Amino acid sequence: MRTSSSVLVVGGGPTGVELASDIASVYPDKKVTLVHSGPRLLGFIGHKAGNKALDWLRSKNVDVLLEQSVDLDSISEADGIYITSAGEAIAADCHYVCVNRPLGSSWLRESIVKDSMDKYGQLMVDEHLRVKARNNIFAIGDVIDVPERKQGVLAQRHAMVVAKNLKLLLKGGNKEIKLSKYRPTVSITMVSLGKKDAVAQLPFTTMSGFLPGLIKSRELFLRKTRKLLGLENHSVFL
Hints:
Elements: E1 6-10, H1 14-26, E2 31-36, H2 47-59, E3 63-66, E4 81-83, E5 89-91, E6 94-97, H3 152-170, E7 189-193, E8 197-201, E9 206-209, H4 210-215, H5 222-228
Parallel strand pairs: 1-2, 1-6, 2-3
Antiparallel strand pairs: 4-5, 7-8, 8-9
């Protein structure tokens, strides 16, 4: 990254937007290009949030190409030229792929939970996040079929529920009636934009700029995560 003068980011979801914005913020002299196959950035949240992210990136001279894609099976950094689906040539010293990938759960179809998987490769779980048809197997994270966004913060909430339930079951006896339930909620979505700004999708409005940036962009929830893991915090401000 440090030795590259130009960078290509493939994918305009939260990961791609955050990465492109970070590169543009930390290395303002580098040429950054973001290619996204959809008609707008951050397609999983409101139009306003996507438009604000687009305006921010373009204000930092990031070249954003919408409704175009790059053949991920043929891209190579050897020649430094990438061709989009629209025939546009992009010169870049390195690239980062930030697009959705299939769940890495195919191996589970050869395991004891194979009958608890849906057609999408997800594990079907009950309200306690216990794999269906299994009394002592729980699952958390992207692999479960709970109808909500796939986000790290939600996986943390899954883990807290499962940890409580495992402790209860390990004590022995019939604890079924006391098992904790996981209740999906509409979460606040935040996407950092460089070191100081962010865009936030709230239940009834969209915010962008320095204020939401104070919540996420300054340290990317590192302090909160380290505390959750019982680790000592260090200064992470940039």
